[in-house]
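hey
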């Protein structure tokens, strides 16, 4: 069926069975493009969905097919009565990732660059570490969630102490202060450039559940021990995180969500073939940054992919354009 992104984008619903909240689905959005046997699979961040058509168009300019996955309880896949973004373990997302990989293989795709933003980057890393999907040839991480944006005492001992409570009350909401600063910097309703659907990507996000926190804490504990990912990784981040004394408007030029220094430091635990790049003037979602910044991000991502993920691929003129 046609997707909300318009002509050239097709939506495919993956039926994932039934749980205590009812039917569970995931949604794959495919951009029509020449099939070279190579593709990019994009995973969104928390309280997010696939909508970055400007990225898909640029990647399709390489002759790559582009697929976006809204996992269960994300974006298009969130059904009435469901707890948004809820999971008990990151492995909960493996069935839709496996099904999407199978769908891509059925479309004639042989090599895939997995592209994960924020929480999507953590999920993609865990999936590749556990499943070792043969079709995955590289991993592009756009500001991945490699550490929770909390003081050490909260993300360490306090979260571990919450494990029994999370097992008993996994859908209970964790205390948090809703923030709209990222939406105000990105959406046209306020000061931004983009007109994404605020129902699918709400300005203040969704409440974070204890089950989700516990799942992420376990994934981070494992990450610190090392994932040994068997493929090349590109970790891109903003040059710096938002500072306490930064002036208004800095949200459009910094990461307002995560600690980029911790992100880059932890990148070495992903595997032996990790390339890192910090982009001055970038925001949390690098691809929503100012035009010159996002052009640099895409240039570097494409050049890296052509060099190490899809060797032998020829780079079209868009690789050198701004």
């Amino acid at each position: 069926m046609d997707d909300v992104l318009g002509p050239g984008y097709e939506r495919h619903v993956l039926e994932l069975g039934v749980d205590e909240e009812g039917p569970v689905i995931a949604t794959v959005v495919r951009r029509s493009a020449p099939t070279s046997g190579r593709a990019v699979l994009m995973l969104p961040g928390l309280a997010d969905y696939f909508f970055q058509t400007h990225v898909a168009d640029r990647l399709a300019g390489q002759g790559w097919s582009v697929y976006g996955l809204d996992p269960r309880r994300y974006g298009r896949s969130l059904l009435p009565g469901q707890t948004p973004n809820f999971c008990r373990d990151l492995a909960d997302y493996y069935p839709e990732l496996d099904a999407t990989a199978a769908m891509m293989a059925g479309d004639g795709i042989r090599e895939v660059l997995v592209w994960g933003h924020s929480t999507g980057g953590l999920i993609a890393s865990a999936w590749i570490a556990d499943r070792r999907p043969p079709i995955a040839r590289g991993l592009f991480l756009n500001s991945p969630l490699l550490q929770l944006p909390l003081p050490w005492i909260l993300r360490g001992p306090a979260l571990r102490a919450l494990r029994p409570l999370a097992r008993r009350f996994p859908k209970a909401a964790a205390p948090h202060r809703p923030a709209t600063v990222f939406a105000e910097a990105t959406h046209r309703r306020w000061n931004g450039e983009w007109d994404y659907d605020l129902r699918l990507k709400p300005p203040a996000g969704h409440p974070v559940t204890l089950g989700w926190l516990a799942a992420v804490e376990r994934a981070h504990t494992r990450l610190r021990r090392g994932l040994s990912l068997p493929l090349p990784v590109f970790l891109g981040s903003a040059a710096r995180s938002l500072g306490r004394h930064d002036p208004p408007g800095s949200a459009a030029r910094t990461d307002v969500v995560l600690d980029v220094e911790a992100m880059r430091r932890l990148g070495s635990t992903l595997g032996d073939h990790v390339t890192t790049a910090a982009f001055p003037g970038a925001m949390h979602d690098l691809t929503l940054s100012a035009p010159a910044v996002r052009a640099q991000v895409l240039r570097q991502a494409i050049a890296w992919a052509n060099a190490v993920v899809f060797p032998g691929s020829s780079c079209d003129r868009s690789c050198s354009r701004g």
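The CA atoms of residues 200 and 280 lie 29 Å apart. Strands lie at 9-19, 22-31, 38-43, 65-70, 111-117, 136-142, 233-238, 274-279.
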